[in-house]
Amino acid sequence: AGAGQRVLLAAAPDAVIVRVLAADLPAFTPRTLDRVGLRASIAAVRESGWAVSRGELEPGAVSVAVPVHVNAEVVCSLDVVGPESRCGSREWVRRAVDILQATASELSENLERRSL
Fold first, then answer.
1. How many CB atoms sit inside 10 A of residue 88's CB?
2. N or C, where is the chain less crowded by C-beta within 10 Å?
3. Which residue, 33, 39, 31, 37, is CA-closest to 9?
4. What is the C-alpha separation between 39 and 3, in angstroms, rounded?
């Protein structure tokens, strides 16, 4: 239901996504995505490279996440969360995405250097 989890799911093999979509999906809040919404969100994350969650896991929370790649494989996500009252604007989300992507890139480079 959260942005970080959705980034990881979008990077998972199709068989994993099929299995997740076939399972019971708990509704944590009234905004939690159903199967159709989750499927559309996975496609959007794959296209954009980041995810945003607005009260889907915790009421009143906004979460933004990006993947961290090591050798072209997603190994984790970086995520920032805040209250919708302060973090819900498009400008805040865009700035968070920019900062997270820059940080993820640096982390990826460091992890790849250490894995050689």
1. 16
2. C
3. 39
4. 14
